[in-house]
Each structure stands twice: as structure tokens, then as C-alpha cells.
What we know:
Chain A is mainly β. Chain A contains no helices and 9 strands. In chain A, strands 1, 3, 4, 7, 8 and 9 form a 6-stranded mixed β-sheet that branches. Chain A is globular. Chain A starts with 8 loop residues before the first strand and ends with a strand. By secondary structure, chain B is mainly beta. In chain B, the strands form 2 sheets. In chain B, strands 2, 4, 5, 6, 9, 10 and 11 form a 7-stranded mixed β-sheet that branches.
Amino acid sequence: QSALTQPASVSGSPGQSITISCTGTSSDVGGYNYVSWYQQHPGKAPKLMIYEVSNRPSGVSNRFSGSKSGNTASLTISGLQAEDEADYYCSSYTSSSTAFGGGTKLTVL
Amino acid sequence: EVQLVESGGGLVQPGGSLRLSCAASGFTFSSYSMNWVRQAPGKGLEWVSYISSSSSTIYYADSVKGRFTISRDNAKNSLYLQMNSLRDEDTAVYYCARPSRSGSYHYWGQGTLVTVSS
Lengths: 109, 118
């Protein structure tokens, strides 16, 4: 039950694009197309932004996109907005648990 | 509208016990597996436990195995987490979350805070 690896922080200016990586193993990220991404604002519950690598739930902006290559998944946010400043977590299905990344703090400069 | 409402958190001494509940509404509770996920203050998300829709399959994180017990009552649309032998490191906000078949959590409760301290 190892955690997935994310950068601790990323930053970007309004209007720019940023990408957050999430690295796992062949037992989690690489083994299934079941990677999810969550956004969490301070004091709030996590919100699902991407599921099954690249699918957006209804209501989530198309500025958010996901992809995967091998054991690494990525979340890209284009056209950064002030409201995107938050913590972002990746997760992956495994055969008997859910693996979460350590989280990435996104700062909008 | 899907709603998950946790309760039962509070302050407990190390070695003590606490039982969390999660009341579900807005969907057919008995058809879905459920999970508990926690978040220590200032830290990331940590998966805690999984229970299948019929309670036939249960999994735990290594960090809580042997101390925590997940259960559900489909007649009451409720999920539970019995926490025994609590440690300082169990201090966290505990969320109940409903996963999809692919393990993504589309629905979360608001969380309940458990503080383990003497």
C-alpha cells in the first residue's frame, strides 16, 4: 500500500497551463486505466475532477484534462484561474485498496 | 441528490475507542460498495477501509488492520467504522466516500474530526 508520487507544489500565472504528475507502479497506475484526480480547497471535502484517466464528471470545466503513460499519470489545467488554487491529489485503483498521491499544492501567482 | 453525512468524531485518549457513522441518502445504498478515507491535519488523503455492497468483501489499510472494523447496515442506509486502540497518528478528518466500479470517489461526506490526545 505505497503512496503515489506527486510534486509537492506547482505554480503558474493566470491564463497559463500547468501539469501535475503522478507516478506509481505497474501494480497501480500502470496496471489499470483507473486513475482519478481530486481538487481540495482548505476546509472542504475533496472534489472529483478526473476519473478513469481522462474523463471529466458533469460540471467540471474542460480546462481540466488527464492522461497516462506507463506508470505516470498527469493532470493538466489550462487557462489557469485564481479559483484553481487548491491542493490536488491523484489516486489509483488497486486490487484491494486505493492508492493516493501525497498531494500537490497549486499556487496561482 | 446523493448525500453522505458522517458523525461520531470527537476527542479520545490514546488507547480508547470511537465509532463513526455515515448516513447515506439519495441513492440505493445496498447496491454500492463504500469506503472510509482519512486526512491528518495538514497532510494528504489516506485510504482506510473498503466494504462491498453485501459486506462479503472487506479490506483495510495496513496502518489500521486489527484495530479498526468497517461494517454497514443496508436496512438503515448506514456505514460504520469501529476504531479501537486509537493512537495519536489516527488523528484526522474521516470521510466516507462512495466509489464507482473503477474506484473513483464521485461522492464524499463533509468529514468528521477524530482527535486522539491525552
